[in-house]
């Protein structure tokens, strides 16, 4: 089918603001948004966007697809293209735009340092962990740090959403000296946390579902 | 000018392991074309082999690896790999890796191909992902400086010694010079030379080509691993864990055809054996729709698939529309891994002083002619750690800075300028994407699982033509942020060099061993070919030589599964 891609363009060296560029590509409905974007790039190699694994594990191609936070490689065209073949792509909200679909990720990666982003292994750890304890950290450990939750739920003031996810993953680790004490760093009221968990579930590409603790 | 004692190039498992091992003792930085957590190590699913159980033994791991390598692996290196495995897994446990566990709380282990024991330590089917993120956490803890989205362009070598790096910062669009005493290349593989590959877009063999161009020796480049089970069409990886957990392969007649090829190991024969079997079934008309075979997991049940193979299920559902809980999934073999790489010794050192390599980019030769599942992840952490330890020794012993980059820098700047200008292609309709597509098709069709002299010669001719066309292409835009056209241009250049080397090495080796199968020479020939292929850059192109294989305990015998 013919896809009409509408891609946000912005070059800091010459553009005062962003504008939309229309590119038409031929693609199959079972192909991904990333496939279509790569075809567009091959027509106009000046379009900048990140991509790498194309299997939803590296998190590079996080962007706004028809205004929704998604990974381009994980999104099938048939799920997002309207009956006229229209599809709109923009950079993640809430991040400084560097060029076209590329945003500044450094503050996002730096935000992990707002927690203590590593396991502080207990001195008496014996190398074992029960399967039940292992199951508790499995889901939050699937986070790929794509940045979509910071884009969607971050308010720029408190600990960022991805840092909260990591904080939970570490707090629930039976090896960790601080354990649940870490959760005080989240600085969220229980009802705020409940809303956060629900919101996160609704769009997180890895379906991270933080347990209630 | 930026200076560091040591620069690790590549932010995947080998790179982060090396950097976090050296951090604290020397000033080490990580330079990576991606943010480190975006590295392709994260896509590894199956696990890390290590003989942890009382019923398993390091010796048995060594033997399986030697046999799996079709006796081309260096046995001294394999001994290091297998004996350091258990302590590195322990180190990762203390670093915080969220492993899957057994009932008594130990690290869970599963069977992977070619292994006599379930020895792959795993975290569901996200083993690479969780260790990558844990090592990234360790790098944060140790305050390792990273340069994300910086590209290595050239190694600066003065009088046979590393003196620095010529690099490109994607965000600023500018080149920089980094002065350093040692460099560890941990840049991964070159899967993107092939049309069908499990590899990420970033896997363009940068480190291998850059090292080769700087005078480092490559080895065993003809040995390319094709993973038997990738999703038909997209070639997204379906972990060997799917067969390790009990999955079956079926042809269009509903036969578990592996009994014809590996009656004892069946689906868990090594990858070279299974990939050839699948192609043979398809060739002989037993492929489903003539194109693929089925991987059946339905008998494992939903609970086990959810627990052990959640990512495989998710990927299959999304990219094929088939839920493996309900129906078999269509799979085909695709390029997956490079056994060949930058030749190193047991301490990861190369023939250039101050240059080390580890992980898939390196060839210390633990995999020989065929790698076993679970051994590449192990190699990244074992040899990443060794490289990290070695640079600490090197830097503390030799405190003097190498001379400033001089001639090598002039040459690098000259080469860099050559990328730019107005296009004057031989054919006005030519462009970099066309060249990449033709290279990809050539490699998959003529330098794939089955090889013959005539097809390899054809590949060599086509690649030579592509290189000529490539040399006339230029990039018009220069100092511009996030210039992915420039990156594409440079990466295709790397891949063309490597493709030519792979095809020539495959043409030269007139035998079949491990993943290198010549239909015109179907037997292994120990008399002439029980040796490594060594490759270096000559005046007119790659030159080839041989080096003996280290054989300590296990004399080559016929490999049967």
From TrEMBL, chain A:
<comment type="similarity">
    <text>Belongs to the succinate dehydrogenase/fumarate reductase iron-sulfur protein family.</text>
</comment>
<dbReference type="InterPro" id="IPR001041">
    <property type="entry name" value="2Fe-2S_ferredoxin-type"/>
</dbReference>
<dbReference type="InterPro" id="IPR009051">
    <property type="entry name" value="Helical_ferredxn"/>
</dbReference>
<feature type="domain" description="2Fe-2S ferredoxin-type">
    <location>
        <begin position="1"/>
        <end position="93"/>
    </location>
</feature>
<comment type="pathway">
    <text>Carbohydrate metabolism; tricarboxylic acid cycle.</text>
</comment>
<dbReference type="InterPro" id="IPR012675">
    <property type="entry name" value="Beta-grasp_dom_sf"/>
</dbReference>
<protein>
    <submittedName>
        <fullName>Succinate dehydrogenase subunit B</fullName>
    </submittedName>
</protein>
<keyword id="KW-0408">Iron</keyword>
<keyword id="KW-0560">Oxidoreductase</keyword>
<keyword id="KW-0479">Metal-binding</keyword>
<dbReference type="GO" id="GO:0046872">
    <property type="term" value="F:metal ion binding"/>
</dbReference>
<dbReference type="GO" id="GO:0016491">
    <property type="term" value="F:oxidoreductase activity"/>
</dbReference>
<dbReference type="InterPro" id="IPR025192">
    <property type="entry name" value="Succ_DH/fum_Rdtase_N"/>
</dbReference>
<dbReference type="GO" id="GO:0006099">
    <property type="term" value="P:tricarboxylic acid cycle"/>
</dbReference>
<dbReference type="GO" id="GO:0051537">
    <property type="term" value="F:2 iron, 2 sulfur cluster binding"/>
</dbReference>
<dbReference type="InterPro" id="IPR036010">
    <property type="entry name" value="2Fe-2S_ferredoxin-like_sf"/>
</dbReference>
<keyword id="KW-0004">4Fe-4S</keyword>
<dbReference type="GO" id="GO:0009055">
    <property type="term" value="F:electron transfer activity"/>
</dbReference>
<dbReference type="InterPro" id="IPR004489">
    <property type="entry name" value="Succ_DH/fum_Rdtase_Fe-S"/>
</dbReference>
<dbReference type="InterPro" id="IPR050573">
    <property type="entry name" value="SDH/FRD_Iron-Sulfur"/>
</dbReference>
<dbReference type="GO" id="GO:0051539">
    <property type="term" value="F:4 iron, 4 sulfur cluster binding"/>
</dbReference>
<keyword id="KW-0411">Iron-sulfur</keyword>
UniProtKB/TrEMBL annotation, chain B:
<dbReference type="InterPro" id="IPR036188">
    <property type="entry name" value="FAD/NAD-bd_sf"/>
</dbReference>
<feature type="domain" description="FAD-dependent oxidoreductase 2 FAD-binding">
    <location>
        <begin position="5"/>
        <end position="377"/>
    </location>
</feature>
<keyword id="KW-0249">Electron transport</keyword>
<keyword id="KW-0472">Membrane</keyword>
<feature type="domain" description="Fumarate reductase/succinate dehydrogenase flavoprotein-like C-terminal">
    <location>
        <begin position="436"/>
        <end position="561"/>
    </location>
</feature>
<dbReference type="GO" id="GO:0050660">
    <property type="term" value="F:flavin adenine dinucleotide binding"/>
</dbReference>
<keyword id="KW-0560">Oxidoreductase</keyword>
<dbReference type="InterPro" id="IPR030664">
    <property type="entry name" value="SdhA/FrdA/AprA"/>
</dbReference>
<dbReference type="GO" id="GO:0009061">
    <property type="term" value="P:anaerobic respiration"/>
</dbReference>
<comment type="similarity">
    <text>Belongs to the FAD-dependent oxidoreductase 2 family. FRD/SDH subfamily.</text>
</comment>
<dbReference type="Pfam" id="PF00890">
    <property type="entry name" value="FAD_binding_2"/>
</dbReference>
<keyword id="KW-0813">Transport</keyword>
<dbReference type="GO" id="GO:0009055">
    <property type="term" value="F:electron transfer activity"/>
</dbReference>
<dbReference type="GO" id="GO:0008177">
    <property type="term" value="F:succinate dehydrogenase (quinone) activity"/>
</dbReference>
<dbReference type="GO" id="GO:0033765">
    <property type="term" value="F:steroid dehydrogenase activity, acting on the CH-CH group of donors"/>
</dbReference>
<dbReference type="GO" id="GO:0022900">
    <property type="term" value="P:electron transport chain"/>
</dbReference>
<keyword id="KW-0285">Flavoprotein</keyword>
<dbReference type="InterPro" id="IPR003952">
    <property type="entry name" value="FRD_SDH_FAD_BS"/>
</dbReference>
<dbReference type="InterPro" id="IPR003953">
    <property type="entry name" value="FAD-dep_OxRdtase_2_FAD-bd"/>
</dbReference>
<dbReference type="InterPro" id="IPR014006">
    <property type="entry name" value="Succ_Dhase_FrdA_Gneg"/>
</dbReference>
<protein>
    <recommendedName>
        <fullName>succinate dehydrogenase</fullName>
        <ecNumber>1.3.5.1</ecNumber>
    </recommendedName>
</protein>
<keyword id="KW-0274">FAD</keyword>
């Amino acid at each position: 089918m013919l896809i009409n891609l509408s891609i946000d363009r912005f070059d800091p060296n010459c553009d005062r603001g962003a504008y939309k560029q229309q590119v038409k590509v031929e693609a199959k409905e079972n192909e991904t948004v990333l496939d279509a974007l790569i075809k567009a790039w091959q027509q106009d190699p000046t379009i900048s966007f990140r991509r790498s694994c194309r299997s939803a594990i590296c998190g590079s191609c996080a962007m706004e697809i028809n205004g929704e936070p998604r990974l381009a490689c994980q999104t099938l065209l048939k799920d997002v293209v309207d009956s006229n073949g229209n599809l709109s792509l923009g950079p993640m909200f809430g991040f400084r735009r560097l060029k076209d679909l590329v945003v500044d990720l450094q503050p996002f990666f730096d935000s992990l340092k707002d927690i203590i982003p590593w396991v502080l292994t207990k001195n008496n750890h014996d190398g074992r962990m029960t399967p039940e304890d292992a199951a508790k950290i499995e889901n939050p450990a699937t986070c790929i740090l794509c940045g979509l939750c910071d884009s969607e739920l971050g308010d720029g003031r408190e600990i960022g959403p991805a840092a909260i996810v990591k904080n939970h993953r570490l707090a629930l680790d039976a090896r960790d000296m601080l354990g649940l004490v870490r959760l005080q760093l989240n600085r969220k009221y229980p009802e705020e946390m409940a809303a956060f968990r629900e919101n996160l579930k609704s769009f997180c590409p890895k379906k991270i579902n933080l347990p209630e603790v | 000018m930026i200076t560091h004692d040591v620069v690790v190039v590549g932010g995947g498992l080998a790179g982060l392991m090396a950097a976090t091992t050296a951090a604290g003792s020397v000033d080490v930085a990580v330079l990576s074309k991606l943010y480190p957590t975006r590295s392709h190590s994260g896509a590894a699913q199956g696990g890390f082999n290590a003989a942890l159980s009382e019923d398993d033994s390091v010796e048995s791991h060594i033997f399986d690896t030697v046999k799996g390598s079709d006796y081309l692996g260096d046995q001294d290196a394999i001994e290091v790999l297998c004996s350091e495995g258990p302590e590195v897994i322990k180190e990762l446990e203390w670093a915080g890796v969220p492993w899957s566990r057994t009932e008594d709380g130990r690290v869970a282990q599963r069977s992977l191909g070619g292994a006599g024991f379930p020895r792959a330590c795993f975290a569901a089917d996200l083993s690479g992902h969780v260790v990558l993120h844990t090592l990234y956490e360790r790098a944060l803890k140790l305050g390792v400086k990273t340069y994300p989205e910086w590209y290595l362009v050239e190694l600066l070598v003065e009088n046979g010694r590393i003196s620095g790096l010529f690099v490109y910062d994607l965000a600023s669009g500018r080149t920089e010079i980094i002065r350093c005493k040692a460099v560890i290349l941990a840049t991964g593989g070159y899967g993107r030379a092939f049309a069908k590959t499990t590899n990420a877009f970033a896997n363009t063999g940068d480190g291998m080509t850059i090292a080769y161009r700087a005078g480092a020796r490559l080895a065993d480049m003809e040995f390319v691993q094709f993973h038997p089970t990738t999703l038909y069409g997209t070639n997204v990886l379906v972990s060997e864990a799917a067969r390790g957990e009990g999955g079956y392969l079926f042809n269009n007649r509903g036969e578990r055809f592996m009994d014809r090829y590996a009656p004892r190991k069946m689906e868990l024969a090594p990858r070279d054996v299974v990939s050839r079997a699948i192609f043979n079934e398809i060739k002989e008309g037993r492929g489903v729709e003539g194109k693929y075979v089925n991987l059946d997991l339905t008998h494992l049940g939903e609970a086990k698939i959810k627990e052990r193979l959640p990512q495989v299920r998710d990927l299959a559902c999304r990219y094929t529309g088939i839920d493996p809980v309900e129906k078999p999934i269509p799979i085909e073999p695709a390029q997956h891994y490079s056994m060949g790489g930058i030749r190193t010794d047991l301490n990861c050192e190369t023939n250039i002083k101050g240059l080390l390599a580890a992980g898939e980019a390196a060839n210390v030769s633990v995999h020989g002619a065929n790698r076993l599942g679970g051994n590449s992840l192990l190699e990244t952490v074992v040899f990443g750690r060794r490289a990290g330890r070695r640079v600490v020794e090197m830097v503390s012993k030799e405190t003097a800075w190498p001379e400033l980059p001089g001639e090598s820098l002039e040459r690098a700047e000259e080469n860099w300028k050559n990328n730019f200008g107005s296009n004057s292609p031989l054919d006005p309709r030519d462009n970099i994407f066309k060249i990449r597509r033709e290279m990809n098709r050539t490699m998959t069709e003529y330098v794939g699982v089955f090889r013959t002299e005539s097809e390899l010669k054809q590949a060599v001719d086509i690649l030579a033509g592509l290189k000529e066309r490539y040399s006339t292409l230029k990039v018009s835009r220069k100092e511009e942020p996030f210039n992915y056209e420039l990156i594409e241009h440079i990466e295709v250049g790397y891949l063309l060099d490597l493709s030519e080397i792979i095809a020539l090495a495959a043409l030269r080796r007139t035998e079949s061993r491990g993943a290198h199968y010549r239909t015109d020479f179907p037997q292994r020939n120990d008399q002439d070919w029980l040796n490594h292929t060594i490759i270096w850059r000559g005046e007119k192109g790659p030159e080839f030589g041989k080096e003996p294989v280290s054989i300590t305990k296990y004399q080559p015998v016929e490999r049967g599964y």
